[in-house]
Design goal:
Length: 157
């Protein structure tokens, strides 16, 4: 798993869907905080159910837009988002880098991205299938599936 050697900080799954990736991260790293964000009701409810079944006490799930959430504790961002979602993550990271801040964002009434200042950025972004615009991955692997799906790992420091 590309989350190996990513420190001890929190792992945030942006668009956690059915919870499968967040649950795996929680099981793999029981001493790390894992947080999942999902907007769609049915996948969110299934992930809540699976969290209870597997007893993933280090996993917290939110039915909320990650772009309107405080991501300031994240050391690793996990993403399986469509290209437009990855562009939003890239803009969020770029904005935080310019301000020398950590990721804490919200959208104002005009749906414009705003960030608040913090100490530092997350160390890693790991993305399934879709690359992070304007960033070069430090590592790329291909899954042994029908499409040979790419997984990208970006180091942000």
């Amino acid at each position: 798993m590309l989350t190996e050697n990513t420190g001890q900080g929190a792992i945030y799954d942006l668009g956690s869907g059915w919870g499968t990736l967040a649950l795996r991260a929680a099981a793999r790293f029981p001493d790390r905080k894992v947080v999942g964000y999902e907007l769609s009701l049915l996948p969110y409810l299934v992930s809540i159910f699976l969290k209870q079944v597997y007893g993933a006490n280090n996993l917290t799930l939110y039915r909320r837009d990650f772009m309107a959430s405080d991501l300031s504790e994240a050391s690793v961002l996990l993403c399986y988002l469509y290209p437009g979602g990855m562009s939003k993550v890239s803009a969020l990271i770029s904005s935080a880098q310019i301000k020398g801040s950590k990721l804490s964002s919200f959208h104002n009434e005009a749906n414009q991205l705003n960030t608040t200042t913090r100490d530092a950025l997350p160390l890693f972004v790991i993305s399934n299938n879709f690359s992070l615009p304007d960033h070069q991955p430090e590592q790329e692997i291909r899954l042994n599936d029908f499409y040979h799906s790419p997984i990208y790992r970006y180091r942000l420091d």
